[in-house]
Specification:
about 60 residues, mainly alpha, 3 helices
């Protein structure tokens, strides 16, 4: 089993969406790929909304 799969299973066990984690390998010479990866994951996480942990804290306040 790949490391990323194990981490995604751990996130789900904690109550977080597995889509909040992405593992992408790129070298320092791949600036465009890095920017695209960061932009993509940022859009995905924003679409998911606040972390369930943050929602729980806000509800308790």
């Amino acid at each position: 089993m790949a490391r990323a799969d194990v981490i995604k299973q751990m996130l789900e066990a904690l109550g977080l969406e597995k889509e909040r984690f992405e593992l992408i390998w790129c070298s320092s010479a791949e600036a465009d790929r890095f920017v695209a990866a960061v932009t993509d994951i940022t859009e995905k996480v924003r679409a998911l909304g606040p972390s369930p942990f943050n929602r729980a804290v806000a509800a308790a306040s």
